[in-house]
């Protein structure tokens, strides 16, 4: 399978709402030769990133919309337009290979259509886009519902949020302080010819000048370092961990924060790592094994206490709540295609349910840290404000992370072009059982 065909197949499934590009290599992209996988991934992710600009251009140039049964041809067209406008692939190669891919899809009838549209994009694409950019959806390459929400929630920042979402994310590392210091690992990187710089806000973080395969990182296999965005590295320190504590990491997969907790305080009496899907816990288990750490893994719905809680209270809880992931769109650009406006209220309700249930397991005097990778207040400050109204025994604690905007409840970090992802953090203490 060619990289272009694989990218189009993967994108077509996303467009149909039947798949996500996810964090690992989707099956459709994994079918190409290893040497071509990077290109296939770039074509799929890049097309998703700029989908609304590419779609606007396609609609302008197609005489009539393609049928639902030809979603694969439509995706292939968008992949072709992406190559012409956003890559250094020679135009003739982008056009000919895109056209040839239609034959492999057993839709030779589409060759002429693809060829005609792509050649016009080659001649006039940038000029046509400039005319279409009066529409903020096309200018920002964000779905209208999200563009409007961002504008309403962040009137002074919404365009910079969209711009950051459209960039390639930096690759950030978390140095395992049980195995060495950040300065020492930075020196090891430089000895290996890998340029990096310390993060501004995470004392364990390093940002690489250019992303690279983790297996090229010195000591990665031995657990000296992990990949984790700087904003995510700010959550575990807010727990104020002490030896002997029993800690719950709820919605823990893929385990980055689980491992960070254990690196910060190896003397915990127990860390319970909870997630809904057993398959997601496999990734947590792999990370724990690589870092030579131990936790109690449980697969269950956090709202169903009888299925997982033994009645012993926790002194600390980290709830990394399921959310819209609107703060990490640059890492998962297909969120623009798969997430819908109506999802947000449902997610906020779920977040409130998880908070109410897990609060029952927290010891009086204990601390709960609530985190999401969302930039939408409906999932963040409003969830915590509502929780505080429901629970008289809960009080806010300061969120001192050196970055972000103070909210009525908690602190919001917006995505930064060369820095951290969008992230929200709140910190609550339980004064009594109310």
Automatic annotation (TrEMBL):
Quote the EC number: 2.1.1.176
Q: Which GO terms describe its biological process?
A: regulation of DNA-templated transcription; rRNA base methylation
Gene Ontology CC entries for this record: cytosol
Which amino acids does the record list as binding S-adenosyl-L-methionine?
A: 251-257, 275, 301, 320
Reactions catalysed, semicolon-separated, are: cytidine(967) in 16S rRNA + S-adenosyl-L-methionine = 5-methylcytidine(967) in 16S rRNA + S-adenosyl-L-homocysteine + H(+)
Q: Has UniProt tagged this entry with the keyword Cytoplasm?
A: yes
Q: Which PROSITE patterns match?
A: NOL1_NOP2_SUN, SAM_MT_RSMB_NOP
Q: Which SUPFAM superfamilies match?
A: NusB-like (SSF48013), S-adenosyl-L-methionine-dependent methyltransferases (SSF53335)
**Pfam families recorded for this chain?**
Methyltr_RsmB-F, NusB, RsmF-B_ferredox
Functional summary from the UniProt entry: Specifically methylates the cytosine at position 967 (m5C967) of 16S rRNA.
What is this protein's name?
Answer: 16S rRNA (cytosine(967)-C(5))-methyltransferase
